Amino acid sequence: MKKILKLGIVGGGPGSWIGNIHRISSGIDGKYKICAGSFSRNVKTSSSFGSSLNLNKDRCYSNYKTMADRESEREDGIDVVAIMTPPGSHQIIAEYFIKKNFHVISDKPFASTYDQAKKLYSTIKKNKKIIYGLTHNYSAYPMVRMAKKLVKDGKIGNIEFVNVEYVQDWSNGIEVTKKNSKKIFRWKLDKNVVGSSAVLNEIGTHAYHLANYISGLKGSSLFADIKKFNKKINLDNNAQVLLNYENGAKGMFWTCISAKGGNYGLRIRIFGSKGSLEWVQNDPNYLRLNPSKGAVKILEKGFHEADFSKNFARVKSGHPEGYVDAFANIYNEVADHINSKDNKKIRYYPTAHEGLLTAKFIQTCIDSSRKKKWLKF
Ligand SMILES: NC(=O)c1ccc[n+]([C@@H]2O[C@H](COP(=O)([O-])OP(=O)(O)OC[C@H]3O[C@@H](n4cnc5c(N)ncnc54)[C@H](O)[C@@H]3O)[C@@H](O)[C@H]2O)c1
User: Fold this and answer.
1) How far, in Å, are 94, 168, 170, 188 from residue 173 at the CA level?
2) What pLDDT does residue 2 have?
3) CA nearest ligand 1 atom 13, residue
4) Assigned fold of 139-316+350-376
């Protein structure tokens, strides 16, 4: 029988954006039990929140170091830690747990800067005992996995163009001023917390990862134009990037956090020599396959020609699945990897290496925008 993994959580306290999603999705397949946590840097908040999750008081910690130290001393200590703090602390927290041989599931970005990402990657590579999974959750939707397979099977031929965009409006249509910016953006205004670029680390990272994930291509050079709100509000709000991929394909990338009416607009189109694919996160159970000759096909999750997507779905075709289920796929796949180290099995969850490449892309965008030059990466 497979072991139910004991999960510890760092971050994701009351009112946090992503904490609830991790907690729900880790429980969906019954492969984890939340046993410990440091949910906030505030002792009382961490403790009362842990109690609300029915955790024992002695396993609600006020900081991650004490949590890692004490959990490693317990016979019934956690197996895996899930990190969902803001980006600036992903590297130090992950490294602390990795050094104590805990497996890690971390939310993105992999790290908040490329320097941090290189250090974290090296720590992960040195420890052969641990499994590391990154919740680039969009890559885990059934129809994204389907798109990846269609590309791999050559259904759209050689890839020639990749066009990805992820736009949001973080102020919900309110005019952003110096005065209200702190309330709207909170830690996203602090470079030490959000890292090298707010828009790229927070949402651009997903878009670049998704493009690479589906296409199987790696970027090779880029020209980026990153803009800040204005002189008073020191926050990158828009990035446009022209990309060349290693196989000669051309890419266009747009990410923005002040696109009015842009409510979670993640969209990708990939064009090959035989046709193209289009997937939109707001309608995630469908994938458009546009052959260069003949009728457009709309493939549906788990249905006929999209049979492969069943592997990543829990609900029968015709019934929608979404964001939480995609997160759950990553938890599920990491649990299976921990429980069976079979190296021959194809695994789909996003890895540390994918995180490192995305961090390198972001740093190159920053350098290119500053120098106003094409740069190789
Ligand atoms: N994958 C996704 O779709 C997705 C969506 C939203 C956010 N995120 C990522 O999740 C992370 C958190 O974002 P959020 O919007 O939930 O932030 P948030 O500010 O809403 O919540 C952060 C939580 O972490 C706690 N915290 C901060 N530092 C801590 C520490 N050192 N120890 C213990 N707890 C600590 C805070 O008290 C808070 O409860 C970010 O990296 C963000 O990029 C991912």
Assistant:
1) 36, 10, 8, 18
2) 72
3) 86
4) Dihydrodipicolinate Reductase; domain 2 (3.30.360)
- Distance, CA of 263 to CA of 247 (rounded, Å): 33
Residue 106: its pLDDT value, please? Answer: 98
Q: What is the CATH number of domain 5-137?
A: 3.40.50.720
For ligand 1, say whether the CB of 300 is within 6 Å of any of its atoms: no
pLDDT of residue 197: 97
Summarised one tens digit per residue, pLDDT across range 332-350 is 999 999 999 788 899 999 9
Give me the pLDDT at residue 307, please.
Answer: 97
What are the CA-CA distances from residue 256 to residues 40, 141, 356 (Å)? 29, 22, 22
Residue extents of the structural domains in the chain: 5-137, 139-316+350-376
Atom of ligand 1 nearest to the CA of 202: 43
pLDDT in tens, 139-148: 999 999 999 9
Crossing angle for the helix pair 323-339 and 19-27, to the nearest 10 degrees = 60
Ligand 1 neighbour 13 (Cβ under 6 A):
yes
Best probe residue, ligand 1, of 10, 16, 65, 199 (max atoms within 8 Å of C-beta): 16
Low-confidence ranges of the chain (pLDDT < 50): none
Q: Report strand pairing: 132-134 vs 103-106.
A: parallel
Return the number of other C-beta atoms located less than 10 Å from residue 318's C-beta.
Answer: 10
Q: CB within 8 A of 54, min separation 6: which ones?
A: none
